[in-house]
Design goal:
235 residues, four-stranded mixed beta sheet, 15% strand
């Protein structure tokens, strides 16, 4: 990331020497004063360039991430249930010694808290994709899912304003929950995270397994095949 900003770096000392009139460049005292001033300017210049990566979405944290959220229209940070936050957990659930609760000093145990930097970064990326969605068409929804969550999905029209969202079976559950979640703000209630048309709703969600309808036998005989699993959302 830092290399992308190296194009803005300049050797100010060399630039000053080139732009100094010859009559002054021969003066040792003048060159000494100029070098001292330019060295301080060079340090400031390098500090500014070095700070730029920390203002990008991939590397920003804390306040810098809040600034990006303001720019894209996602501020203050969304809230999450503090009781659902897992601070410490075993790598293998069956290897947990006693499943006793662990208390973290200063950590909230209940109520609503603002999401952390990792989740906020994902939400900002989703907001950016949503800001560039104009009609909520199927290609735009697929573009949004790839950019915001890094997943591929399909959209099918199954009725008047009713849509079916098809995920691959390997899609992580947290991504599915985030993509299908709804939120309310000052403009409207229960808006889907997916940029759907105003009059549309998600009626059914399905999961497609790899080669869901491929034959089991090498000779191509269509005997038994896995079937995509789906469920219907309540209206």
């Amino acid at each position: 990331m830092a290399s992308e900003f190296d194009i803005y770096r300049q050797d100010l000392q060399a630039l000053a020497c080139v732009r100094t009139l010859e009559v002054f460049s021969r003066n040792v005292v003048m060159r000494g004063i100029q070098t001292s001033i330019i060295n301080q300017t060079q340090e400031l210049h390098n500090s500014i360039i070095d700070s730029l990566p920390a203002r990008t979405l991939d590397l920003a944290v804390g306040y810098n991430l809040d600034v990006i959220g303001r720019i894209v229209g996602l501020f203050p940070r969304p809230l999450t249930d503090a009781g659902a936050i897992t601070y410490f957990s075993p790598d293998l659930p069956l290897a947990a010694p006693d499943w006793s609760p662990v208390y973290v000093v200063g950590a909230p145990l209940a109520g609503q808290v603002q999401i952390g930097d990792v989740d906020y970064r994902i939400a900002i990326r989703a907001k950016i994709a949503k800001n560039h969605t104009k009609y909520g068409s199927a290609p735009e929804i697929q573009y949004f899912a790839r950019l915001a969550y890094g997943v591929t999905l399909s959209v099918k029209n199954i009725g008047l304003g009713d849509l079916e969202i098809v995920f691959s079976a390997s899609t992580p559950p947290p991504v599915i929950r985030a993509a299908l979640a709804d939120f309310s703000d000052d403009t409207a209630d229960h808006q889907f995270n997916l940029p759907l048309p105003t009059t549309s709703r998600i009626r059914r969600v399905s999961f497609r397994y790899p080669d869901a309808f491929a034959p089991d036998l090498d000779n191509g005989a269509p005997d038994v095949a896995l079937v995509g699993v789906g469920y219907v959302l309540n209206a």
